[in-house]
Amino acid sequence: MDRWTASWIRTGVFIGLLVLLAVGWVEVSFLRHAGARELARRTACKYNLKLVHRAIVEYRSESGALPPDLDSLVRAQLLDRESLYCPSGLLLSSAQDAKYLYYPENWGTEQPVVMEAHDSHLLWENALTRTFSLPLEPASFGLYSDETVKSLFER
Ligand SMILES: [Zn+2]
Predict the structure, then answer these.
(1) Which domain holds residue 100?
(2) In whole angstroms, what separates CA 11 from the centre of its chain?
(3) pLDDT tens digits, residue range 20-31?
(4) Looking at the 3D structure of the chain, how many domains does it have?
(5) Ligand 1 center from residue 62 Cα (angstroms)
(6) Distance 59 CA to ligand 1 centre (A)
(7) Cβ contacts of 29 within 8 Å, gap of 6 or more
(8) What pTM does this model have?
């Protein structure tokens, strides 16, 4: 092996090590950010449910009755369409699966009026906590008629 070839091999090994380090760094920062992003989506999901509550109350005071479905709130321009969907669910499933479920018969009871259609946050919790040991509480949110939004696991 001449000196020229040996020098190229050393350069190749050096570049290979740099690539490995870069991949490792990207993986670690991806996981850290994946956890932070899921926490941000949970906050957005709870905020959606607060907005839905405000829209239901406005709809009720304008029309004297609860809306027949959540789409009525969008048609009445009391709510943006994207507030009808869990942001974590939209990443994992079809839009229809990510859409919140509405139980108008639960208005005024102890049962949730609007809740997650899908265990979207649980799937993230499974993936991030169980696989990568990121600390995420299990969560699946419900909106109650007194405006409380909390994880269904807290009851
Ligand atoms: Zn959600």
Answers:
(1) 3-154
(2) 44
(3) 888 888 777 777
(4) 1
(5) 28
(6) 23
(7) none
(8) 0.80
